[in-house]
């Protein structure tokens, strides 16, 4: 069964998942999705006046996800393995949680400005795998990720979340590239 833009394969509400991280490109992808994809869906549906009452009226539900890399509590210097203290591990974990909360708050604020109902999820693990697994588990109709525009050489060595997701997720994916900056 083919699903076109604005149609949903389940209960009439299109499930859109947007993955964000600290980069401006991921927030550009969220903004682009809110302006283009969801505006299109809302023009087909009803106008919303209160994002808290959007479920049941809206034609789309947005799930914003952020994947936290697991903290590697050991270091391999030239010599023996060095383990950080419990205080260091707790400090890193606290900083990760505060960073995640800040990112998700910023994303929810963007959705609220557009009168779009959104929920958030914090994923644990390798972002590439966690995003694909969650998209499959939630049966989303569309996954949206930003593209940092890595060269093919960097993508080969570093890997790319968007490239990995494009090859491994089982739903349509939209990779949003930011516009090229104009040189003066």
From TrEMBL:
Residues 14-177 form the UspA domain. It comes from Lithospermum erythrorhizon. InterPro entries: Rossmann-like_a/b/a_fold (IPR014729), Universal_stress_UspA (IPR006015), UspA (IPR006016). Pfam families: Usp (PF00582). This is UspA domain-containing protein. CDD domains: USP_At3g01520-like (cd23659). SUPFAM superfamilies: Adenine nucleotide alpha hydrolases-like.
